[in-house]
Amino acid sequence: MEPYASILNDLKQKTDKTLKHMKDQLGSIRTGRASPTLVDTIRVEYYGTMTPLNQIAHVSVPEPRQLMIKPFDGSPQVVKDIEKAIQKSDLGLNPQSDGKQLRLSMPPLSGEQRQKLVAKVKDLVEQNHVALRNERRDANKLADQMKKDGKMTEDQCKKAHDAIDKELKGVEQKLQEMLRAKSKEILED
User: Fold this and answer.
1) Domain 36-105 -> CATH class
2) Beta bridge pairs of residue 69
3) Best label site of 2, 26, 38, 101, fewest CB within 10 Å?
């Protein structure tokens, strides 16, 4: 086993977290279609505690441009609290309530709105690229320190740097694929 294996394992865990975070961020960006992940980031004051919406209600997609939110606890107060939380969110959607459940209709996005959303997605991807570059820098520093401390040879240090670069290139490709997929989803109607 190579002496730098622990550096690669640590890097892999960090890059996996970065990818998961990116996926969560992209899921909360509105497209022309309804998706339950759209409301995943919304927190509702539920009996004095800020609780994720998906933990207190079932979110479904009855139609391509509509979300239905049905609280597990059918009390009218919970429906009102969910409605307030959605209105406070940056989704720009106004829920319709019948007292027992809420419906969110997704109006079609204008061309300008779509371009703004694509720009937002690109910014998010760039922020995650910066995080990945920082992770690469830290891993390379750790490898250099191990070489300096005599825990690995010059050749092993070079292999470590190459392995770190290879890992990051794969993750950066995944980020680019996520960017392309989300941009396509936003731009198509």
Assistant:
1) alpha beta
2) 59, 102
3) 2
